Amino acid sequence: MGRLAFLVRAEEANSPHRDTHRSGPGWRIRIGTFAATAAMVSAGIVLGAGTAAAAPPAIKLTSTSCPNEIVQGQEGGCVTELQNLLNAHGAGLVVDGQFGPSTLYAVREYQAATAIAVDGRVGPATKSKLYATGGSAPAPINLQSSSCPANIVQGDKGGCVTELQRLLRHHGYAVDVDGDFGAGTASAVRSFQSSYGLTADGQVGTNTKRALYDTDESPSTGLDLRSTSCPENIVEGQSGGCVATLQSLLNGKGQSVGVDGSFGPLTLTAVKAFQSASGLTADGEVGPNTKAALYANIGGGGGNGAPAPINLNSASCPNEIVKGQRSGCVTELQSLLNHHGADLAVDGDFGALTDSAVRDFQAEKGLSVDGHAGPNTKAALYGAVTPPSSPPPGGGYGKILDVAQAEVGTVEGSARANSYGSAVGLSLSTSNYAWCATFVSWVAKQTGASSYRNSYVSGWVKQARAGNYHLSVTTSPQPGDIVAFDWDGGSDFTGGNEHIGIVRTVSGSSFTTVEGNTGNPNGGSDGVYVKSRATNSGYDVVFIRVR
């Protein structure tokens, strides 16, 4: 079974400037409650998200006492059970038996992570998947909190083990999330330790805990191989989130490969074995037929029946996609709208809410507001219009700030933000990984100021301290310098709680920055924004000069 892509964001997790769960007026913002609460669980903020006192007793979802579909607005013991199950997968919900907005977001994120149609309705496929991927388990507890033992070992049970298993799944290991540290969990721990160069003793101590939480820029498995985010044919040598998803799906079909996002010889062997077992040509290329076979019988063969997404610019889609249509073109349209901040059920059905979201998007982009997804709207959705002016490579370190400032206001998950990954060879949605260092790498590439590229904050600090790639550490910051933050302190930049941006202004111990993967100061989705920081605010700062 493939892992669940419940993102635990490292960046800004402990920052006093972090803005979450706020939305502005007008354009509907996709808050991403599930990812945020999962991050809070891992940060030790939401601990023991157990049943509230007033919650009705839980009722098994598959019993005759529960409706065929559990939807927003309902309440009762069936919802209590649903919330408990979602919490077993890291949602961090308050269990009150009320199916409100937070539960809806958690349902949708779970469906997206497990290849079920994202419609927010808990029908037979979603119920079955919830029980198959862990069932009820103790609420997760941060491994580094005082509530967990210094060494978590085989035989232990409880919320600390739930959290351990959740983190192992995030790193690609197909373990059950049941709060019981059995042989399967022990084997996954040893494998994880080996991959990180740790002593493979199966005991989860200080170093293993730290490595488990070091999730900065880990490949996402939330990508659908059939979407336009992935190549039509995935082949040996490729890497990124599409390969990570492929590996997870292969494991779900009985293969055993590490989920590292790199299509190497072992993944090639697994692909060929799967193709042979499925009656396909065993050529090792993951094309449409292999993708279809990989997704067959997952979550009831596609959950509640959303058509597979189709690129809006393909010949299969009409020139104008309008209200009343139902197809894979609408599935793709809804997914793109969500990437731009909408909060739609991705069901392939162009109804009133999709029409409203299209009109909101058109108004925001200065397009004709008619609700028709025609050529101009399609182009804007894919971000194919002329990008903001920025100098070509070779502009030099003096242009770093200019290039960065030109991106301010770019929203996470948009095509523009997703394009930053090209600097480091990633083709992921920025909604699915921590991308602050990717943004800095993209700026460096645009200016040619440094040839260094890395999606990890620690890499930038290491090279600057070594004086490589025209990078050095400075104690006299200037506009255009790079600044790295270690929210945990210690300036070791190894705990997975790091961030990075570009200095904009300096005034004594205070300074402002341009940062990617940061909260919108005015509320709304994360993106590229200006932030106020300081050198005396309880976190460690390293300034990097590019010359």
Question: Characteristics of this structure?
Answer:
547 residues; alpha+beta; 6-stranded antiparallel beta sheet; single chain; 33% helix; 18 helices
Q: How much of the residues is beta strand, in percent? A: 5-15%
Strand line-up across the major sheet: 1-6-2-3-4-5
- State the low-pLDDT regions, or none: 1-52, 215-222, 297-305, 384-394
Secondary-structure element sequence?
HHHHHHHHHHHHHHHHHHEEEEEE
Mean of pLDDT:
75
Largest sheet: 6 strands, antiparallel
Taken from the alpha-carbon principal axes, the silhouette is globular
From the helix content, strand content and strand pairing, which structural class follows?
alpha+beta
Task: Give the fraction of residues assigned to helices.
Answer: 25-40%
Question: How many distinct beta strands?
Answer: 6
What does the radius of gyration come to? 23 Å
- Euclidean distance between termini CA atoms: 48 Å
User: How many DSSP H or I helices?
Assistant: 18
Offer a quick outline of the entry.
The chain has 547 residues and is an alpha+beta fold.
Secondary structure elements and pairings:
Elements: H1 33-42, H2 77-88, H3 101-113, H4 124-132, H5 159-170, H6 183-195, H7 206-213, H8 241-252, H9 265-277, H10 288-295, H11 299-302, H12 328-339, H13 352-364, H14 375-382, H15 400-406, H16 415-418, H17 436-447, H18 457-466, E1 471-474, E2 482-486, E3 498-507, E4 510-518, E5 527-534, E6 540-546
Antiparallel strand pairs: 1-6, 2-3, 2-6, 3-4, 4-5
Walk me through this protein's architecture.
This protein has helices at 33-42, 77-88, 101-113, 124-132, 159-170, 183-195, 206-213, 241-252, 265-277, 288-295, 299-302, 328-339, 352-364, 375-382, 400-406, 415-418, 436-447, 457-466, and strands spanning 471-474, 482-486, 498-507, 510-518, 527-534, 540-546. The protein has 547 residues and is of the alpha+beta class. A six-stranded antiparallel β-sheet has the order 1-6-2-3-4-5. A hairpin with an 8-residue loop joins strand 4 and strand 5 (527-534).
